[in-house]
Each structure stands twice: as C-alpha cells, then as structure tokens.
C-alpha cells in the first residue's frame, strides 16, 4: 500500500519477459527431471533418493501448490527412515521443517504445504507442539496442533480473547469461539451445533455488543451474534401422514429431506398392525432427496367393508413414527404436527429466554438510530422480531425490510436475497394464520412474493392463491400439494410450469397475465388427471396461430381452456 506504480519502458518490459521465460524453462526442466526419476523402472533402480528432495525443493520453493511433488517427498522420506541413523534423520527432519516454513512464506495458504507439515510432525516421536502453537496462527493447522498437544479448550478460548480484543474484525477468532464454547459448556439434547447456558450466553452477548457498537459495519461480530441466538439442530420428525382412498395413495412428509431406500433412510409401513411392502417415490417422480414421499396402496388395505383401517409409518433412522385411522365411508385421513406448536419456522433464531431476546432487540434499535443505514443492524432486528413473535411483529418487520432495501449500504446484487427472505417470512406467517384458522385454504395473493418455500407444509391445502406476485416459475416442490384442487396464479411473471405435475386432485388452474411463451410449456399439465378448467388469457402463447387446436391436442382431457 502507498507505493506508486512506476511505468516501465519497452526495454525493461522485454528484459522482464526474457527473465520470466528463463525461469519457466528451468522450472519445466526440473519438473521433467523429477518425473523421470519417479517412474516405475527408476523406483526399482533406487533413483528415489535425496536428489529428488533437492530437485523438488527447487520447484516447490517457487510453487508450493504442486501436490504431486509433496507426495514424492513423502515417499523419499519414508525410504530414508529405514536407511538413516537417528542423528542423520533428525537433521533431515529439521531441514524439512525449515524448508516448509520458507514455502509458507511464498504462499501461507498452500494446502499441500500445511498437509505435509502435519504428516511430518505426526511421524516424529516427540514433536515440539508448543513451538508450533507459537509459530503459526493458520486456523485449521492450529486446531490440529491444539488437538495433538491436548491443549485445554479454555486456553484456546483465552487465545481468541486476546486476538478479538486486539481486533474485533477477526472473523476466524469469532468462529473458533463458536467451536470451543460448546465443548466447554456441553448441554444435553442440543445437537452438534450446541447451545449455551444463560450466564455464558449473556457474557458473550456483552462481548459481541461491544464489537458491533465499536464498528457497526464489520460483519464478523454480526455473524457471531446470529450464532449466539441460534437454536440447536431440530430433531428428526415425521411431520404429516395422509391417506387418500380415491387415489389409493399414502403420503408422508419429514422434517428434513430424505433419500428413502438408501442404507440410512428406511421407512416401514404397517397397515392394521401388519407390515406392508411398498415402493416409495417422490411426488415429482425424480426420487432425489425430498421432504415428501408417497406410495400406492393395494385395494385390500382400503376395503370399505371394514369399520376402519390403521396406517402407521415408522422412520427407523429418525426414531419417529406417525399413525392415522381411515374410517368406513371416509375418503381420506391424516395426522400432522402443528407448525404453531412446534415452532417450525424459528430456525435462524430461537427463544433462549424472551427477556434476553427483547434486550437484544432494544440494543439493536438503539444502534440503528445511530446508524440508520447499517444493513447488519437492520437484518438482525428483523431476525430478532421473527424469534420473539413473527405475527405480532409482522407489520414492523415489513417496514424494516423496506428500509433495508432502500439502504445505500445494500449491494444491488444482494437485493434479490432480501426479496426472497421477505417472501419466506411472509409465507411462514401465512401458514401460521391458516393453522390458527383451522382451514385448508391459503391466500398468498398481493404479497409481492418472489419465491415459494416450505411447500412440504402445505400437504393438506385444497385451495392456493398466488395471484399478483412476482413469481417467475412454479417449482417442482409444488408437486407435494397432493390435496390441491384450485390453484390461482394470475398476474405473475411465470414462464415455466415444471412444478404443476402429478397433482391428482387439481381441477382448476388460473394463469392469466403471465409470460408463458409457447404451448409446449403446458406439457406438465397432462399429468393432472382431474384438470377441467385452464385460464391462459393474457399470455404470449395465446397469440400463436391455431392455439386452440394445439391446446386441445396437448390437453385433451381439459374440457374448458380460456385463451
């Protein structure tokens, strides 16, 4: 920094070019010589000796990221272990450690060099781990050395204290704390992410508040703050079980994507307390990891002459199960978890203590008054409100989103992220309101949505309104809506219908004023057997010549198509 760039003359530029060419020739020559000496016949002839160390040092000294040559050096050193005396071997190792330090000065982030150092020290009878801790601060290497030296986590935490006190912007130190604190304060049933006891949490919150009040624009402390208020990994759960007599189908949704049929994810179906062998598939037919899986049911398991049938799905790996009873004369049954009871949408922040979160919210609002356009502060306020009460703070949250998008501190390339995050929160709130109302109709119109998520939570929805938003596509996950009968998606920017596939109950589909370009994009609708009404008015494809005839041929089962 601060050095003026001096223009070079053509003569100087030519001299530098010739110098680079000369270095390249030497480099290539040395590389070819090494490869000749490490061939199969040369190995048998014993040419894999100390001369290879000398040759490879010339190359690695200029380019430490040559992984093959580090492998050659390891092979040479392994051979020399059996040939050298202890004194000679100690001198060789000392020289190798010194060479590694010189390579790290050339490129401190050379993975090959760090790996070779770990390998070398791991072969020593008494490596000097204390010197390694004092010498290097590369974080992955430090964790390796600390583990080998059995350094107590409390000492390493004190080390991060010293670095953070010196510089609040040390992101790696903050991250290291998030690894060390769960080791020092293990909590039962908190998962691999770990949560902290309240007294420790309050102390850490005080530290991180000092950091972001000192430098509000530095992201390191804000990220650590989000981790502090995060929650443990959600437990595996079977969220919803649905049985349809009409479709002779059973559908089940999970707390995370599964690949059913793999060695780890196995489902057992019991019908009337007897195991039933079935073929599981995903709603979209891709059979990739999915939140939702379904299977066909044999007629005997749906016999309406019996008073009832009991269906139970057991997820062995998740140690979870769900059961529902299909009564005589009923066409469907289900059993599901409540999104309101399980707090399914509070994944980024959790309520450790509502008083703690409320205090954090007030502190961030105070900072936002001093730094009105600080994007990290605004985003944290939004997340804290989501954790405290998403419905109570909905209006205020939307106002903060508007302020955040208007902020000059927000990179225009990140604006789409904020739009999608806002859409995610609005959809979550709508699902909560739907559950409180105990209905199967979801209204998402006029919300300026840019994306759809949590569709696995809408397994039982019969009517869905997505009109007047900014959606560009209906995603494949929409196929999870097995009970959907009416879908309204007018006045969006939809160009693709890949998600409108295999919907067994869909009867009416409204797609007015979108951007569907040609009849071919309607092909997925052929997999919806009950579709009778399709409104396409205001789409570009309606301008095509002979469109009515093309649509009648493409979708012969749809009795009413409006163009």
UniProtKB/TrEMBL annotation:
Instruction: Note the superkingdom of the native organism.
Output: Eukaryota
Q: Where in the numbering of this chain does the Rab geranylgeranyltransferase alpha subunit insert-domain domain appear?
A: 238-339
Protein keywords: Leucine-rich repeat, Phosphoprotein, Prenyltransferase, Repeat, Transferase
PROSITE patterns to which the protein is assigned, alphabetical = PFTA (PS51147)
Top-tier EC class:
transferase
Asked if the keyword Metal-binding belongs to this entry, the reply reads no
Which Gene3D superfamilies does the protein's record reference?
A: Protein prenylyltransferase, Rab geranylgeranyltransferase alpha-subunit, insert domain, Ribonuclease Inhibitor
GO MF annotation: an example: Rab geranylgeranyltransferase activity
> What processes in GO biological process is this protein linked to?
prenylation
The record's annotation in InterPro entries points to: Leu-rich_rpt, LRR_dom_sf, Prenyl_trans_a, RabGGT_asu_insert-dom_sf, RabGGT_asu_insert-domain
Query: What catalytic activity does the UniProt entry give for this protein?
Result: geranylgeranyl diphosphate + L-cysteinyl-[protein] = S-geranylgeranyl-L-cysteinyl-[protein] + diphosphate
Q: One GO cellular component term, please give it.
A: Rab-protein geranylgeranyltransferase complex
What is this enzyme's EC? 2.5.1.60
Which Pfam family, just one, is annotated for this protein?
A: RabGGT_insert
Briefly state the protein's biological role. Answer: Catalyzes the transfer of a geranylgeranyl moiety from geranylgeranyl diphosphate to both cysteines of Rab proteins with the C-terminal sequence -XXCC, -XCXC and -CCXX, such as RAB1A, RAB3A, RAB5A and RAB7A.
In the record, the note on similarity to other proteins reads: Belongs to the protein prenyltransferase subunit alpha family.
In its UniProt entry, what is this protein called?
A: Geranylgeranyl transferase type-2 subunit alpha
């Amino acid at each position: 920094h601060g050095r003026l760039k001096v223009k070079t003359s053509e003569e100087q530029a030519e001299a530098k070019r010739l110098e680079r060419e000369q270095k390249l020739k030497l480099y290539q020559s040395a590389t070819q010589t090494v490869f000749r000496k490490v061939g199969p016949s040369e190995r048998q002839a014993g040419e894999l000796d100390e001369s290879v160390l000398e040759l490879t040092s010339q190359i690695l000294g200029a380019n430490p990221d040559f992984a093959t040559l580090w492998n050659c050096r390891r092979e040479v050193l392994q051979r020399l272990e059996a040939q050298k005396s202890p004194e000679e071997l100690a001198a060789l190792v000392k020289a190798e450690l010194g060479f590694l330090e010189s390579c790290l000065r050339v490129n401190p982030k050379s993975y090959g060099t760090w790996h070779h150092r770990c390998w070398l020290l791991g072969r020593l009878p008494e490596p000097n781990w204390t010197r390694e801790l004092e010498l290097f601060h590369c974080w992955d290497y430090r964790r390796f050395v600390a583990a080998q030296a059995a350094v107590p986590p409390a000492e390493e935490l004190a080390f991060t204290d010293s670095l953070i006190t010196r510089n609040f912007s040390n992101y790696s130190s903050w991250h290291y704390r998030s690894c060390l604190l769960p080791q020092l304060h293990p909590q039962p049933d908190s998962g691999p992410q770990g949560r902290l006891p309240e007294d420790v949490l309050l102390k850490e919150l005080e530290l991180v508040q000092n950091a972001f009040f000192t430098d509000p624009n530095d992201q390191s402390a804000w990220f650590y703050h989000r981790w502090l208020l995060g929650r443990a990994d959600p437990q595996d759960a079977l969220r919803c079980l649905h049985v349809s007599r009409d479709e002779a189908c059973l559908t089940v949704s999970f707390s995370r994507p599964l690949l059913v049929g793999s060695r780890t994810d196995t489902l057992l179906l019991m019908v009337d307390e007897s195991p039933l062998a079935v073929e599981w598939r995903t709603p979209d037919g891709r059979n990739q990891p999915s939140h939702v899986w379904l299977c066909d049911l044999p007629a005997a398991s749906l016999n309406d002459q019996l008073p009832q049938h009991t269906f139970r799905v057991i997820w062995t790996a998740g140690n979870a199960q769900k059961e529902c009873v299909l009564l005589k004369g009923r066409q469907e049954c289900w059993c599901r978890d409540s999104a309101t009871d399980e707090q399914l949408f509070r994944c980024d922040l959790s309520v450790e203590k509502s008083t703690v979160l409320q205090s954090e919210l007030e502190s961030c609002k105070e900072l936002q008054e001093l730094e009105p356009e600080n994007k990290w502060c605004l985003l944290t306020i939004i997340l804290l409100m989501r954790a405290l009460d998403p419905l109570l703070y909905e209006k205020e949250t939307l106002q903060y989103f508007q302020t955040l998008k208007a902020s000059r501190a927000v990179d225009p390339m990140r604006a789409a992220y904020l739009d999608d995050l806002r859409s995610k929160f609005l959809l979550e709130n709508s699902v909560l309101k739907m559950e409180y109302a105990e209905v199967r109709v979801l209204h998402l119109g006029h919300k300026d949505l840019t994306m759809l998520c949590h569709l696995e939570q809408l397994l039982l929805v019969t009517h869905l309104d997505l009109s007047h938003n900014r959606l560009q596509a209906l995603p494949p996950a929409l196929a999870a809506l097995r009970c959907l009968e009416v879908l309204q998606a007018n006045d969006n920017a939809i160009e693709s219908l890949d998600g409108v596939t295999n919907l067994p109950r869909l009867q009416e589909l409204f797609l007015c004023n979108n951007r569907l370009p040609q009849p071919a994009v309607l092909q997925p609708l052929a997999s919806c057997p009950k579709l009778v009404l399709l409104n396409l008015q205001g789409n570009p494809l309606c301008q095509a010549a002979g469109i009515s005839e093309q649509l009648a041929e493409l979708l012969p089962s749809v009795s009413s198509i409006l163009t």
